[in-house]
Structures are given as C-alpha cells and as structure tokens.
Amino acid sequence: MSDFEIRTLDPGEHRAASNLFRASLHVPPSDDTDWERAARAFQPGGTIGAFDPDLIGTARSFDAELTVPGGARRAMAGVTGVGVRADRTRRGVLRALMTAQLEDFAGRGVVFANLLASEAPIYGRFGYGLATRYRTYSVDRHRARLHPDAPATGEVRLLELDEALEVLPGVYEGLARRPGAMSRPEVLWRLYEGQARRSPQPVKAVVHHGPDGPDGFATFYVDGLQVHPWTKSLRLVDFFPGTPAAFAGLWRFLLGVDLVDTVVAEARPLDEPIELILADHRRAAVDRIGDEHWIRLVDVPEALAAREYGSAAPVVVEVEDPVLPANSGTYRISADGAGRTDEPAALRLDVTTLAMAYFGTWRPSALAGAGRIEVRDPVALANADVLFATRVASWSGTHY
Length: 400
Ligand SMILES: CC(=O)SCCNC(=O)CCNC(=O)[C@H](O)C(C)(C)COP(=O)(O)OP(=O)(O)OC[C@H]1O[C@@H](n2cnc3c(N)ncnc32)[C@H](O)[C@@H]1OP(=O)(O)O
Prior knowledge:
GO terms for molecular function: aminoglycoside N-acetyltransferase activity. The chain is of the alpha+beta class.
C-alpha cells in the first residue's frame, strides 16, 4: 500500500517528527526547554516524513565519516529517529522511508549508512548488517587493583561539564581509530550536551594527558543511594582511551573514586583488555554482549576498495542487493585491493551479510555455517576468513 507521500521536512516540522519518534518509543514529547536543545541535533535537510496527509512516519540522518579496516575514512550517514505512528504500522511506511533515504544517500556519494536498532529483526531486509558488537562489564571497585605491570605514565585531569563540552570534541577526533569508529559532527555533540544537561546526576569528564598531550578521556556519572549504606555505581558514558597508558591511567583514576562500589563500563569493544590490567581479572565481570552498529554498504564497490585485506589468495564473491541493485555484481577481493570482475564467483552472499563480514565481526566461514553464504569453493571460504579479518575488533563507541 502506498497512499502516502514521502518528502524532506522543513526545520519548522522537526518538532513534529521528534514527537512522533518519541511517541513510537513510548516516551513523552520534549518540553520547550528540552526542545530548544534537541532541535540542534537535527541536521537541516536530514529528516524525511511520510504524509497521508498527516505526518505518519519519519526517519532522520546526519553526515559524518566512518573508519574502515586499515584506517581509511569514507562518507557515511548516521540514521536515527525512525518511527511510524502506531495506527499506521505494517503498511510499508518504513520500507518507503528506508528506500527513499538509501536512494538519496547513494545519489550523493555516501558510502556507508549506520544505525542502532531498537529491534534486531527490522533492518536486515534493507541491507543493514550487524557489523559491530560490544560487551558491557562491571568492575568491583573495592577489590580491584591494577596489575603491577600496568602502564603508569601520564596524568589525569578532572573537568566539569561546561569545560568538557568545549574540550572533548577536539580530543575525540584524534582517538576514534578503530574500524567502525566515526567522526562526530556538531549535531551529535549537541545531542550529548542535551543528554548530559538533562541528567539528574552530574556528568563529569576526565582527560588523560600523555607525552604528546591529551590521549584519552572518559565521561561518567555516579548514581545510587544517597543515604547510608551508599551503594553507588560509577557509570561510564563515553570512554576513549587512545593508548595503553591512557587505558590504564583512566582505570587507575576510576578505581580511585571514593564512595563507589562498582564501575560499570557500558558497550565496550569486545577485545578491550580490562582483564589484563587487573591484578585479579575476576574482579571484572561481563554483564552482557550486545549489538552495536548495524552498517549498510551503500556503495559496495567504493566500500570494498576502501578497506585493507589480510594476506591470502584472491577470492571472487557475488553480491546481491535488491534495494540498491547497482551494487549487485561480482567482485574480486585480494590482499592488494578489491574491484569488479567478470570471473566466476566462489562465494555468493547478500549485501547484509557482506556488511557483517566486512568489519571482521563475523568470519565468512561462520556466516557460511549459518547458511548466510553460498559456498561454491571451500578453499575460497578459508581465504575469505583471512582476507576479511581485522587486527582489532571493530567498534564505534558513538551512540545516538
Ligand atoms: C534507527 C532507529 O531509529 S531504531 C528505532 C526504530 N523505531 C521503533 O522501534 C519505534 C517503534 N516501531 C515503529 O515505529 C515501527 O514499527 C517500525 C518503524 C519499526 C516499522 O515501521 P512499519 O511501517 O510498520 O514497517 P513496514 O510496514 O514498512 O515493514 C517493512 C518490513 O519490516 C517488517 N517489520 C517492521 N517492523 C518490524 C518489527 N518491529 N519486527 C519485525 N519485523 C518488522 C515488516 O513485517 C515488513 O516485512 P516485509 O518486508 O517482509 O513485508
């Protein structure tokens, strides 16, 4: 059914889109004070709506850059604010919004799109694959000590929120180097400012200074009982240690904050070595592993050419993309790069599965075992495991 129109919203319509999105998540609309801040998180021209003639669905995006395995950066669109009015769901409104958005991205040279999904079954059909994952862990502050071999250089400095909001954007840019990391445009920092200023607990920051200046930071707040027995948790909001010394130095600070029982590190990279810097690694307990970014290769040839590959014999893959059919075709992937080819394909997969393999989070052989890759040559599958592997776990750390 398509008895609705999709168009870009004017800034004067952003608040209606925000209200619709919030209602779809079962949260109340922003009040006037909150909206004044929230409005700054909308990139002009970045919000689309479905009308019948009332606004019945919306999706928003902002422009940034994404780091791929090997360190190159390419244009990306961050997708958020997706919602359809409860009395208009399951009639194709999301499909129409997603299709319009992806066609717009493809038309203006965006290479990747990414999002955080409210529910896992929604976005795979549009080509978004679960590309980065996280683990959340907690550290028992009273019993945890750093291992004596943990680096002990550098200094930390505590910042109140106002200063942190000025300093952190500059510090962050030099630190977001993992595959899956992204630049943070102004709209994102405005979003974080709004969240921090609304927080009932004071949000603070700590910056680690190494030999060449700031090389890591954490933002955090402390919550819990305000009366005896003072059971409190320190919750990390944003944590970017740029060097091993910054990682150890920031943890040394966090474990030294008084009147805290537990430090909760939410949504961290799967390979972050907390166990290795503690004297007793069992003082860190993994609470859960979850989905982080769902990524869409909007321009498959450009995305495949942008990343580095491991050292193995070349593999030819056939990619299918029903939503952006220009991406469909056969590609040769080798340690020297990747591009289109006429050679016969050894592996066949859809664009969603390609995103899962591309960031190294899922090995091609595991994807094949789960039925997601059709294997015509088993030797090629073993080579694909090596070609697509990444040296560090892909992870974004930027949530919106
Ligand atoms: C990036 C973000 O902003 S994440 C936030 C997403 N928003 C929410 O979760 C808010 C609450 N949910 C909603 O607003 C809506 O249900 C949406 C946006 C998830 C889906 O909108 P709809 O207009 O109902 O989706 P639409 O009718 O276009 O469905 C497209 C397909 O997705 C499927 N689908 C849609 N929603 C879901 C879901 N929640 N779970 C599983 N499948 C779903 C449909 O069945 C349909 O499948 P088909 O292509 O096989 O026919």
